[in-house]
Amino acid sequence: MRLSLGTRRLSSSEITPARALPTLVDDARAGLLAPPRQLPPKYFYDDYGSQLFEAICATPEYYPSRAEASLLSRHATQIIERAAPDHMLELGSGSSRKTRLLFDACDALAMPCIYWPFDVSAQMMLDAGAALVTDYSWLSVHALIGDYTGGIGNLPLPAQGRRLIVFLGGTLGNFEPDQARAMLGEIVGLLRGDDLLLLGVDRVKDTARLEAAYDDAQGITAEFNRNVLTVLNRELDADFDLAAYRHRAVFDEQRARIEMRLVSERDHSVRLGALDTTIEITAGEEIVTEFSHKFTPASIEALLADAGLIVDTHFEADQGDYSLLLVRRDS
Ligand code: SAH
Ligand code: TRP
């Protein structure tokens, strides 16, 4: 589908998954009916969840977003000169706020490109796209609406032209290792010749700082985490009582990941209308809502190597807080 949205420089397409994807009902059946209970993270990002994520990025505790923005502002010129993209595809683009630093460099270098943001959160992406075509007179934006876990091999990208694939925000870390390898494998499939991947990943560090980044004092991350229950209430005709759940973020040093959980504070039952069933949840029981893997230079290089990728340039924030990597095919 193609919509004309007031300007010929902004269009959008809904991406049909390349392979069958589980529905929310499937995911709820697989993840909620019995402990250990777990949900895929994409359900956080309804319109309200996307706004909450933007608010998380502004909290004093959530350093990754600022670290990544500062790396981008420092190195955007070098990145754009090196990548010389005709087409910039961004996975999980959200508000595209940090991507503007790349467009500023395109602007300064007089190296225009076409932007292909891909996100499950359509409204956030279309609002961002409208603002981008206003602010950058040379920019065309083709918004791709869909779920990248359904595959990225069938996107309507032109066959010609140099590509830069952008994957920021540490979002690769939200996949489990096998899924992350599979995702990188699909990215390799889109890279030809001198095409590059720009990848942002968070680094292993002091546990207290990591846990604080996922449990801010204002409680915005807690609200974001609980919002997934609002999504379930709406989409599954469920009746989760949000007040019964406490947000918890713990760093598992062994697995090098933050685990986000919702902890039930009391025994209660929850009706899942769309599954035509009721579940019993006991006090202290947890629903795992997200992982956020943290990397070392060696662990990210190994993960990339498994997918046939190699680091071209590695930009690090102060004291190795965060990594921004330009990556190419290892061939
Ligand atoms: N890149 C932005 C946003 C990161 S938050 C930044 O760095 O600030 C993760 C983004 O990925 C959100 O915009 C969310 O809507 C999107 N997302 C999460 N799961 C997705 C999926 N399965 N398919 C497509 N987009 C997804
Ligand atoms: N990609 C982000 C990250 O792993 C997503 C995120 C940030 C997040 N804060 C969160 C997800 C809180 C769930 C809860 O850092």
UniProtKB/TrEMBL annotation:
Entry-linked Pfam families: Methyltransf_33
Gene3D superfamilies: Vaccinia Virus protein VP39 (3.40.50.150)
EC code: 2.1.1.44
InterPro entries registered for this protein in UniProt: EgtD, EgtD_Methyltrsf_superfamily, MeTrfase_dom, MeTrfase_EgtD-like, SAM-dependent_MTases_sf
Keywords: Methyltransferase, Transferase
GO biological process: methylation
One annotated GO molecular function: L-histidine N(alpha)-methyltransferase activity
Plastid among keywords: no
EC class of the enzyme, as a word: transferase
Keyword Lyase: no
Domain Histidine-specific methyltransferase SAM-dependent: 26-328
Name used for this protein in its record: L-histidine N(Alpha)-methyltransferase
Lineage, top ranks: Bacteria, Pseudomonadati, Pseudomonadota, Gammaproteobacteria, Salinisphaerales
